[in-house]
Design brief:
This protein has about 300 residues and is α/β, with parallel strands linked by helices. It has 10 helices and 8 strands. The chain has one domain: Ureohydrolase domain (Arginase, Chain A). About 35% of the residues lie in helices and about 20% in strands.
């Protein structure tokens, strides 16, 4: 977004940061390249939101905090430690992080850093996959398990956890939903979103979450017709406009952090439309955060 690069976060309100890591993927890797391309596409972002009536760069001190130096291979636990430490530095400085992933497994160490300051948070997850599965090939951590682990570690308040846009072929009712049903996770599948409409879906989301909120936006929640550049695409998803409008509907919530993940630039269409969408969704999230900050300062 043509923001200044800053390593000193003193006085910073919002820090945009890249996490180039995709060793948690189970299908097509490549999301480690996303922060670079999202940053490039974000140069088109202008400073004012007509729909939310906010100029976030005026209301908040926003910086590009660069990319974390995450090891691309080896122990995933070591990589998680690097990610958690990097986010802890941002959060403890008083800034709200907006993270460009990276695969969805990065949400777990981010949530560890967030919960360390704010305690367990509400979670809004835009996704085509539930990502509350268990072990995979004998390992506890991959991009299909971060929110199961977050519940087990007490990082999120599962009754205030809502998933939006879930769809695609699954393993089975028991295999997919037993854990999250036992923990009160609310799922709004893509059929409900399309049938009820965006306004009603926003009402449902807002009725579920409260207190500090973390928002995670998996780009594969958007239909591959609009966002083909992702590792595990699922047809029949949100449009770009629906994605933007859903995020705008979060205005007024207390967002303490967010991420946009699973962009894989090498699978993208002409014009890097997936990275362009990701950059715009980061801007929408920034506007939601700026509105909250402006309200709190009167």
């Amino acid at each position: 977004m043509r923001l200044p690069h800053a390593t000193d976060l003193t006085g910073v309100d919002v820090a945009l940061v890249g996490v180039p890591f995709d060793s948690g993927t189970s299908y097509r890797s490549g999301a480690r390249l996303a922060p670079r391309e999202i940053r490039a596409q974000s140069s088109l972002i202008r400073p004012y939101s007509y729909f939310l009536k906010v100029a976030p760069f005026d209301d908040r001190l926003v910086v590009d905090a660069g990319d974390l130096d995450v090891p691309p291979a080896g122990s995933i636990d070591h990589a998680y430690g690097v990610i958690e430490a990097g986010l802890r530095r941002i959060v403890q400085a008083g800034a709200v992080p907006i993270v460009a992933g990276g695969d969805h497994s990065i949400s777990l160490p981010i949530l560890r850093a967030i919960a360390e300051k704010h305690g367990p948070v509400s979670l809004v997850q835009f996704d085509s996959h539930i990502d509350t599965w268990g072990d995979y090939f004998g390992g506890r951590h991959f991009h299909g398990s971060p929110f199961r682990r977050a519940i087990e570690e007490g990082l999120i308040r599962s009754p205030q956890y809502v998933q939006v846009g879930i769809r695609g072929p699954m393993y089975g009712e028991a295999e997919d939903f037993a854990f999250q049903n036992a923990h009160g996770v609310v799922m709004i599948d893509i059929g409900a979103v399309k049938t009820d409409g965006i306004a009603r879906t926003v009402e449902r989301i807002r009725s579920i979450v409260r207190g500090p909120v973390y928002v995670t936006f998996d780009i594969d929640s958007v239909d591959p017709a609009f966002a083909p550049g992702t590792g595990t695409p699922e047809v029949g998803g949100l449009t770009s406009y629906e994605a933007q409008t859903l995020v705008r509907g979060l205005a007024g919530l207390d967002l303490v952090g967010c991420d946009v993940v699973e962009v894989a630039p090498q699978f993208d269409g002409p014009g890097q439309i997936t990275s362009l969408l990701a950059a715009n969704l980061m801007f929408e999230l920034l506007c939601v955060i700026a509105l909250k900050g402006r309200s709190s300062r009167g």
